[in-house]
Specification:
The chain is α+β, with helices and mostly antiparallel strands. It has one domain: Alpha-Beta Plaits (2-Layer Sandwich). The protein is 32% helix and 20% strand. A two-stranded antiparallel ribbon has the order 1-4. The longest helix has 11 residues. The C terminus is likely disordered.
Length: 80
């Protein structure tokens, strides 16, 4: 899976770092660092992180193939 963060759009809200800490991290107060080649097992967390970005600065190639995984993730979050 390939990730791209538009660092010109990113405002450092850190929602992605909170939801997918193995992929995203804040360096200092405003600088985001991330792994552009995320592992497949991070798919659900990445989908949530992409959706949670308030400025829509994150795009991820390969998330749209999640299909059933995204649906089951929503069901699990509805039950909590």
């Amino acid at each position: 899976m390939r990730l791209v963060v538009d660092l010109n759009k990113c405002q450092g809200y850190a929602q992605c770092a909170f939801l997918a800490p193995d992929v995203f991290a804040m360096h200092g107060e405003e600088s985001l660092v991330y792994n552009p080649r995320a592992e497949e097992e991070q798919r659900e967390r990445l989908a949530r992180a992409v959706a949670a970005c308030p400025v829509q600065a994150i795009t991820a190639d390969g998330l749209d193939g999640a299909g059933d995984g995204a649906a089951s993730g929503r069901e699990a979050s509805d039950g909590r």
